[in-house]
Amino acid sequence: MLRHSSTRFLSMAAAVFCLLVLFVTDMSFAQGESSGKRVLVGFKGEKGRQIAQQRRNIVSNYGGKVHHSFHIIPAVSARLSEKALARLKEHPQVAYIEDDVIMRAEAQTTPWGINKIDAPTAWGTSRGAGVHVAILDTGIDYDHPDLDDNIDGGVYFVGLINDGSTNPLHWDDVRGHGTHCAGTVAAEDNTIGVVGVAPEARLHAVKVLNDSGSGSTSDVVQGIEWCVDNNIDIASMSFGGSSTASLQSACNAANSAGVLLVSSAGNGYGGPVGYPAAYNSVIAVSATDSSDVIAGLSSTGPQVELAAPGVNVISTVPGGTYASKQGTSMACPHVSGVAALVMAAGIADVRTQLRITAVDLGAPGKDNYYGYGRVDAAAAVEDPGFDLSGLVYMPQDAPDLGYSVEEGDLVYFNSFDFVQSLNTATGGWSIHMPTDWVYFDWPFYYELVPGTPGILWFAIPPAGGIGVYHFSTSQWEVLPQIIPW
Ligand code: CA
Ligand code: CA
User: Fold this and answer.
1) Which of the ligands is closest to the CA of residue 316?
2) CATH annotation of 32-100
3) Half-sphere exposure of residue 248, counting CA atoms within 13 Å on the CB side?
4) Which of 143, 195, 264, 396 has the most CB atoms around it within 10 Å of its CB?
């Protein structure tokens, strides 16, 4: 069922894509104007400047209004009446007469994933300008016409020779994987090809994978180190493997240094989330299809933080062309792109913002397939209206992890069931929340009405007790029936 609809979408997407990015000729043509029909009259014999004038005269003599007689091809562009055309067609030197077909500029198409996450709506607020995104991958096709204006440069860390080289010939992409990911993040919004999630973000090719698509941990760690040293905002890592102490330390260090790390969960359905995605310091991304259903190729697990389009993703590939690929590798750059939009919008806590604005899918609240949900660019670039830094995230197993909550904290609960049985670690409260107490009215996010499963926010208000913070009025409501522990 899933497979069937995916295949159908692939062929549909491929058809639409080809129609738009290939050099399109419109089969309609200009006609019906008062002075006749626009045609190209082809002649037998050689081309040349001298004979071009003679051919001009022939067409004129048949009543044609000549626009140009070509010397690089034996043909004349002219406008003639239907009657004159019929007569000219019989001229012994005329080889053919064809319609002067209208040519159109190559068009840009918006990949389905870009629309699915509602990036075009977000562009009214943010386009990722000034945000630096490193693509740790097989390199980027440095002269791709849909990427080159957005590429700030790159660096090469594969192997020992040319290590650290910033020469484009070294970080150029042969395999195509990195170029594809780069296009999803920031393909240019122009008249050709595709457009990325954050079309004004700055791309950096950090080549840590070789032309076969694999790389060593040491090269990856070098790439991460380069990101820290070069003030990269977001590191997009569409690869994975097993955990090593060095990789984990490097991710933790980069995260602490302020680099937002995003990585693909892995391409093994039912299999565990790979590394670096599974580290706490990294956002793990699962892949969804155009129906917002988890892709059959996506790894899943408790570390999945967000979901994004990863099936039949059309993007840039080397040689100035485009191709469809799938995998959590394609989902990861969607999240990196949304993160760039959020950063450029000036929202401080990007990771929390991505979590709370994601579209919850599957089981209510955070789950092993979609994490907090599928990223939503339009919601993510909206100012949350309060300081997210005061937010304490409580996973479903929070009491076991010993999270403590203090007065003034905002607490984010990701599960309705969890809320009903929560005991905050400060030992002050056991919360009993009948569904008819619970509501939420943050306009651009959720409106949680009684009985509706979803994501809840509430907190310990400044005056003490447990309350609901009303984002619409910026006021606390202390809930009256809290039963002390
Ligand atoms: Ca484009
Ligand atoms: Ca969910």
Assistant:
1) 1
2) 3.30.70.80
3) 8
4) 264
CA of 318 to the centre of ligand 1 (A): 14
Q: How far is the CA of 274 from the centre of ligand 1 (A)?
A: 32
Is 383 designated active site?
no
Whether the model clears a pTM of 0.90, i.e. scores above it, the answer is: no
- Domain 103-380 is found in CATH 3.40.50.200: yes
Residues lower than pLDDT 70 in the chain? 1-34, 103-106, 364-365, 384-485
- Which string of b and e fits 426-453 if b means at least 16 CB within 10 Å? eebbebebeeeebbbebeebbebeeeee
Q: How far is the CA of 344 from the centre of ligand 1 (A)?
A: 20
Give residue 325's identity as a one-letter amino acid code.
K
Domain with CATH 3.30.70.80 in the chain: 32-100
Tokens 């159109």, residue located: 104
pLDDT in tens, 297-351: 999 999 999 999 999 999 999 999 999 999 999 999 999 999 999 999 999 889 9
Q: What is the pLDDT of residues 159-168, one digit of tens each?
A: 889 999 999 9
**d(C-alpha 23, C-alpha 18), whole Å:** 9
Residue ranges, CATH 3.40.50.200, the chain = 103-380
The whole-number pLDDT of residue 386 equals: 52
